[in-house]
Amino acid sequence: MRTVEHTRQGEAAQVLTLREEPRRPAPGPGPGPGEVLVRLLVRPVHPGDLVGVEGMPGQPEQESEQQSAARIPGVEGMGVVESVGTGVHAPRPGQRVAVFPAPGTWSDFVVVPAALAVPVPDGVSDETAALMLVNPLTLRMLYRALEDALRGRTGPVLQTAAGSSVGRLVSAAADRHGLELINLVRSTSGAGKVRTLHPSQPVIATCDDDWQGQVRRHAGARGVQVVLDSVGGAMTLELSGLLADGGTLVSYGQLGSGTTPLEALPLVARGLTVRGVSILHWMSRTAEERAQDVAFAQDLARSTPDLLQVAGSYDLADFKAAVEHARRPGKSGTVLLTTPLTADSGQGAAR
Ligand SMILES: NC(=O)c1ccc[n+]([C@@H]2O[C@H](COP(=O)([O-])OP(=O)(O)OC[C@H]3O[C@@H](n4cnc5c(N)ncnc54)[C@H](OP(=O)(O)O)[C@@H]3O)[C@@H](O)[C@H]2O)c1
User: Fold this and answer.
1) Whose CA is nearest to atom 18 of ligand 1?
2) Known Gene3D superfamilies for this protein (predicted)?
3) Could you tell me if 55 and 79 are in contact, meaning their C-beta atoms sit under 8 angstroms apart?
């Protein structure tokens, strides 16, 4: 049994370590009532996982419940149900499942409530299944925030980091729903990639001196109604300047550097709204909404697996190389950490 863990926040390459134990699964209690033990095969390296390891710039280090307790990164993954606790009728041992929210997926095993182990549809690969939940569910949350902010209007909407995995889902949804979307990326080569995928959508590179002028020309007299932003930092001020009066900045990530003080934003004078969206709040949505979101994610994985692109795969023990790749500029898709399905895998995979 292998586990990647850390006992303090800091540069991932320095604070993360691999713990190997001869026994499997984890020593200690198995799945309790209503829980399942999942033998994980694939899990992603999301930017948010690295924030959990390294902390947010400018924020105090998160205190763990027990100072010396090791924390295991990862909130999503896919694998095979190894065993189930009392009262669990589904999923069954041997079934392939995707799990979220499942804190600690950078390990060979994780225990989750049975309700959070989502069956992987037939025909969906393990790699696609490992990416089936977090980003598609984030798309659903962003889309709800977008609809609230537009209040029946049509756009235009501006998104940053359009070449990111989430950005590509937003662009595909815009094509599907006829949403007027303007894409921002940071490089000319990144702009070329997004243009190839979505030829009908404008793409602007922020390395161009007049990128803000280009956005204004595309937005026209109405101005940008909503910004979907995962860059933040110093760019927040420039993005708010592109919004029409009464517009909304939806913030859902912090890829960029620098800061913008709240006082610098023309919130009062121009009636702007700033709204945060986080997948960490998905569990507080109603059970019906969550069921719809999961059905959407399963359908997306089945029908358009190309939208859940894999940038590269690494064995769990090669987590340092995986983290380096996840940070590499110009990558397309998400980096995965894998565990081979070995002969001692218990119930094994029904694949
Ligand atoms: N709020 C939530 O619940 C939630 C959920 C999922 C993701 N997110 C956030 O969404 C963002 C994208 O996640 P992802 O998994 O889609 O990322 P990803 O696939 O790893 O892609 C990262 C993208 O960000 C771009 N980028 C990196 N640093 C940048 C910077 N300083 N300025 C502009 N662009 C930059 C990269 O551009 P290049 O191609 O030029 O390198 C790349 O296109 C992250 O901030 C993540 O934390 C938030």
Assistant:
1) 164
2) Medium-chain alcohol dehydrogenases, catalytic domain (3.90.180.10), NAD(P)-binding Rossmann-like Domain (3.40.50.720)
3) no
